[in-house]
Amino acid sequence: MTERPLDGIKVLELGQxxxxxxxxxxxxxxxAEVIKVEPPQGGDPIRGWREVQDGTxxxxxxxxxxKKSITLDLKSEKGRELVYGLIKQCDVxxxxxxxxxxxxxxxxxxxxxxxxPDLIYTRISGYGQTGPYAxxxxxxxxxxxxxxFRYLNGFPGEAxxxxxxxxxxxxxxxxxxxxxxxxxxxxxxxxxxxxxxxxQVVDVALxxxxxxxxxxxxxxxxxxxxxxxxxxxxVTGIVPTNTYRCADGKFVIIGGNGDSIFKRLMIAADxxxxxxxxxxxxxxxxxxxxxxxxxxxNAWCATYSLEDVLEKxxxxxVPGGPVFNVEDMxxxxxxxxxxxxxxxxxxxxxxxxxxxxxxLQATPGxxxxxxxxxxxxxxxxxxxxxxxxxxxxxxxxxxxxI
Length: 402
What we know:
By secondary structure, the protein is α/β, with parallel strands linked by helices. It has 2 domains: 10-212 and 339-398, 3-Layer(aba) Sandwich (Rossmann fold); 241-245 and 251-322, 2-Layer Sandwich (formyl-coa transferase, domain 3), CATH 3.30.1540. Helices cover 37% and strands 15% of the residues. It contains 18 helices and 13 strands. The protein has helices at residues 19-29, 58-63, 77-87, 101-104, 109-112, 140-146, 167-189, 206-211, 217-224, 259-268, 272-275, 283-288, 290-301, 306-315, 326-331, 333-337, 378-384, 390-398, and strands at 10-13, 33-38, 52-53, 56-57, 67-71, 92-95, 120-125, 200-205, 241-245, 251-255, 320-322, 341-346, 349-354. Strands 5-2-1-6-7-8 form a 6-stranded parallel beta sheet. A 3-stranded antiparallel beta sheet has the order 9-10-11, covered by helices on one side. A hairpin with a 2-residue loop joins strand 3 and strand 4 (56-57). Helix 1 (19-29) packs across helix 7. The longest helix has 23 residues, at 167-189. The protein is elongated, with a radius of gyration of 25 Å. 35% of the residues are buried.
């Protein structure tokens, strides 16, 4: 098997649900040994979310991939003693509890710094570890609104629209992944006296992950007093870029906002006079006449099937594409050629799960196994890492610690 960038890195994943676990998934995909700590009763709630078959969520097989599952009751003194022993052997800790919870268990960054000076201590929360809102509960849905992201989604005058995904969690998980990689890079560059002290805290807030998607919203307000508003299927200040319904009821997205691209688009759309209209020669002019342009493109798309529209756009070298659902994606040759689906073995049989990007030529990531059963790796981790014998583990099990 090919080498992966994070081979040899040990990670302890605490916490539940999406942001923290997705961080661990990415690390495991690129080679890290990720130990996922789950409550003895029920495990991570994701095991029971959404489409459940034979008692296990299909999602779990994806987000739990390549991880080793152990059970541990962090609310018990013995459980905290055991987890401390595991932390001391790791390069990275991931936790997404409410700020202060780890400190209440005696497991905060300052509590363990003496024994773990090189640890990358990764904290994911709704509002970050500091500030007046730090202790507020912060699910993705709430923090997406607080970040300013939700305000921009939907149609003017209507309630903001939520994409049918937990974007705040996923993007926070990606930021945590990047933060961990940066901290590991820094630790390798300079680790302080005697090779110790190269660790640091990575503080990720869900609302800040969404805040970082806002592009020009902040400088436009500060510099020009403009509060960007929701704009339906368009993007404010860039024309044309919109979604249009075709004759067969399917939707096409067209991005014709470059000056030369716009000319080619209007010729392809049977409106050559608009291609030469000096009012529309640059983006500012097109923004002023957006409704006129969209009326022409709506009428043109309504005349042809999606396939015909896409063919005409391709001939004209104009960016355009379909609006895919998951069935479309899985049947598409480009997705297949790019290897965007991987097949794993599960107790229910083979299952396709998404590949994780980015793609690395020499040291690519890969899925080695699907999400494990609850506590599947107790014997391996407690035995090999902490030296516990079978009798000790049996007693811990009887006491509800593992």
